[in-house]
Here is the input.
Amino acid sequence: MAAPRGEFSSRFGFLMAASGSAVGLGNIWGFPTNAASNGGAAFLIAYLILAFALAYPALMAELIIGRYARSNAVTALRKISAGERSRAAAMLVGFIGIITVSLILSFYAIVSGWMIAFFFDPLARIINFDSASRWLTTDAVLRNSIFVVLFMLVTVIIIRAGVKDGIEKWASRLMPSLIIILILLIIYVLTLPGAMEGLRAYLVPDFSRIVEPALVVDAMGQAFFSLSLGVGTMLIYGSYISKEENLPTIGGLVALLDIGIAVLAGLLILPAMYVALANGVEIFDAEGGLIAGPGLIVSVLPALFNTMGSIGVFVALAFFLLMTIASLTSSISMLEVPVAYGVEHHGLERKNAAIIVGSIITIISLIVVFYFDPLFDMVVTFTTEVSQPLLGFSFCIFVAWIWRRNDILQEIKQGSPEAENGLFWKVWPFYVKYICPLAILVVYFQ
Ligand code: PFF
Here is the structure.
């Protein structure tokens, strides 16, 4: 017998949870560095266009299916499919989504573990515990394993508590804190010498780059990853939205929050890098590009904080707290996908499902920690560059080509009775039917 389903208790709760899923390492680390290496504001413009024109319609597809079906991705996609073959395809897409999101969580947990380790480092230094500080900041299998387990433990504890008492409660606390910390850090960093140079690198567009296929592919990948699309997170969060909510509006708010925080993060990361440069820290790699990979977070920024004197310790604490919060609100949304499936499909109790699925993902994560070099990049590339766009494509196909148009409209009209005459209903169906799948395929085969 299935347990009663959870529901977000307020619009604010949903907004914090969904934007918490969307806002993650992808916004604070991925977006600014992608922008820096792809022509600054030229990337920003391409990103804004793609995020609103492609990612927002795909986000709406997931939210609408989720709220209509009130269930996990596998069951939901089957529910909107009438034929034998489309139901089989629904099963397959739902499953691949669950596997993909679990694999994303397995690498996300490793990177998030680094963030926690670097958060503890300034604390160790405050109490002059130098050997601990060295241990925390030195890449090693043992350190990475411990922090993966710690991060997954916290994720499991939140998911065990359920939609309202776990996801909503924590997202509503953590997301406002994240925004406050981010703004305070931006204000501080912009007062430092070198920051304006960074702003220029970020905001002055190199328009010659805007038609480069690499830029467009990067911008679309970034938009899909950032809005957590294709893997059923937004679908499952959509399934917990009240029928009284206006879906196009709250979907739009989630997209705006996600994009807004990515743009804000650019105002922190790039100026910080140029402040680091002004303080004598190397910020360019051997090819002359800005250091964008893990080196940025685990060496360039910590080196910058070290040059700031005593305030640097607090800046480091705030920065890694920001990163940890961003990771956590995303990881809970990822774990919720397989957990909801286990609860609804296999009749597991939520608490047990969270522990079982969380343990399996932790083990996969530990395997990646142990065989980091061959596995890490492979898992990242497979999930984010292969699987996620194809799943996003499949969701659009299900909504626009398989699901009955009238059912979609009836679902949207709940909470927005005048939707039939609104702009959203005039534009969106055409978009998900033709533009989104085509654009995803074109960019994918680039
Ligand atoms: N949107 C998150 C980020 O930008 O970091 C990553 C993410 C979360 C991807 C949830 C997929 C997902 F299901």
The domain at 11-445 is CATH 1.10.4160 (Hydantoin permease). The chain is about 80% helix and 0% strand.
